[in-house]
Design brief:
It is a single chain. With about 375 residues, the protein is of the alpha/beta class. It has 2 domains: about 5-165 and about 330-364, Quinone Oxidoreductase, Chain A, domain 1, CATH 3.90.180.10; about 170-305, 3-Layer(aba) Sandwich (Rossmann fold). Helix content is about 25%, strand content about 25%. The strands form 3 sheets. Strands 3, 5, 6, 9, 10, 17 and 18 form a 7-stranded mixed beta sheet that branches. Strands 13-12-11-14-15-16 form a 6-stranded parallel beta sheet, with helices on both faces. Helix 5 (about 195-205) links the parallel strand 11 and strand 12 (about 210-215). Helix 4 (about 165-175) packs parallel to helix 5. The relative contact order is 0.16. Bound molecules: nicotinamide-adenine-dinucleotide (NAD) and zinc ion (2 copies). Nicotinamide-adenine-dinucleotide (NAD) binds near residues 215, 260 and 282.
Length: about 375
């Protein structure tokens, strides 16, 4: 304890809209309940770009990256069930076990998830805000021990890390939040990493019809590879009409919104059958508002849900999904469009913005 901090390289967003830069950062020795992890891989998620754009909050500078796998370097006092050398996926919802959600047996809703107590800093002592309490575009990062979920080391880190955010969010939006079941019709609006994972989840659950909706034909072609049975380019056709046409005029049982915008949410709302389910997994920005006729909200019945992290429980879902991958039943590796170095995150943002990748993954 209280040794010299680790001095490593990390990707920092210094101000709103500014290009990210590779900086020397100081990672303290783990204190009570904390762990330092040697990051092996970290995917570039749209939420990292949201942070850089100031769309999440103003707590600059951010240490970006939050979709990661690595090997535990050291653990602090009182840490049980985790030791140096353990291969882990980092999760951004370490459940507390004692809040009202946890006590009711619904820990995936935990209202008191926690992160490391100590701060990582720049060399001059400026405290960093790690993205989603992780900050894994770095050689090492400091997290709460509960943010480390052990999985089989047979899964390569660039694949395992994806479950740390977007792919888990999408799979869980379909499997956990949307409760997609055998024979259901499902529409997914926005087919990036998150949306395609929702398509894969719907396929795994036995959905009979899976309609992919995006404004980019390349994304629609990839969506088919993850199990979409039909595709709609909503830049060229009315998304609601198209989904209804493909579902006997009724709409889909479950519609998953994976963009995070009011207009796509409205499409999801009206592309859903009566008594169907809308799942919002896309993350909106603070200025966005939604207006809907209240009579339609009532009259169409069903449920309107949001999906935090795919309502996953990391300890339950990560090892299970990694095992399915290792058995060849869940092609998580297909999400990895390219492997990049730590100093290429800014270029990866550009490629994500242009729609050229599903996931760029930093490999260390
Ligand atoms: N709820 C969660 O826990 C969680 C976790 C991770 C990411 N997210 C959010 O999910 C969203 C998607 O993330 P991603 O990494 O897949 O992003 P991405 O940029 O890879 O994908 C977004 C997709 O939406 C498409 N799109 C954009 N505008 C559209 C429109 N008007 N109609 C249809 N499609 C449109 C794009 O072409 C692209 O394919 C983001 O808002 C991200 O912040 C949520
Ligand atoms: Zn809790
Ligand atoms: Zn993310």
């Amino acid at each position: 304890m209280n040794g010299m901090p680790y001095q490593v390289q990390g990707v920092v967003a210094r101000g709103k809209g500014q290009q990210v830069s590779l900086e020397t950062i100081l990672v303290p020795d783990p204190g009570p309940g904390e762990a330092v992890v040697n990051v092996k891989a970290c995917g570039v998620c749209h939420t990292d770009l949201h942070y850089r754009e100031g769309g999440i909050n103003d707590d600059f500078p951010f240490l970006l990256g939050h979709e990661a796998a690595g090997v535990v370097e050291a653990v602090g006092e009182g840490v049980k069930d985790l030791a140096p050398g353990d291969y882990v996926i980092l999760n951004w919802r370490a459940v507390c076990g004692s809040c009202r959600a946890c006590l009711r047996g619904r820990p995936w809703y935990c209202f008191a998830t926690h992160n490391a107590a100590q701060k990582m800093t720049l060399e001059d002592g400026t405290e960093l805000s790690p993205a989603l309490g992780i900050g894994a575009f770095a050689e090492k990062t400091l997290v709460a021990a509960g943010q480390c979920t052990k999985v089989s080391a047979d899964a390569p880190p660039e694949v395992a890390g994806l479950l740390g955010c977007g792919v888990m969010a999408g799979l869980g939006a379909a499997l956990n939040t949307g409760n997609v079941s055998r024979g259901d019709s499902v529409a997914v609006i926005g087919c990036g990493g998150v949306g395609d994972a929702a398509i894969l989840g719907a396929s795994l659950a036995g959905a009979a019809k899976i309609i992919a909706v995006d404004v980019d034909d390349r994304k629609l072609a990839w969506a088919r590879e993850f199990g979409a049975t039909d595709t709609v380019n909503s830049a060229q056709a009315d998304a609601v009409e198209a989904v209804r046409d493909l579902t006997g005029g009724f709409g889909a049982d479950v519609v998953i919104e994976a963009v995070g915008r009011p207009e796509t949410y409205k499409q999801a709302f009206y592309a859903r059958d009566l008594a169907g389910t809308v799942v919002l997994v896309g993350v909106p920005t603070p200025e966005m508002t939604l207006e809907l006729p209240l009579l339609d909200v009532f009259g169409r019945g069903g449920s309107l849900k949001s999906s935090w992290y795919g309502d996953c429980l990391p300890s339950r879902d990560f090892p299970m999904l990694i095992d399915l991958f290792l058995q060849g039943r869940l092609p998580l590796d297909r999400f990895v469009s390219e492997k990049i170095a730590l100093d290429q995150v800014e270029e990866a943002f550009t490629r994500m913005h242009r729609g050229e990748v599903l996931r760029s993954v930093v490999v260390l």
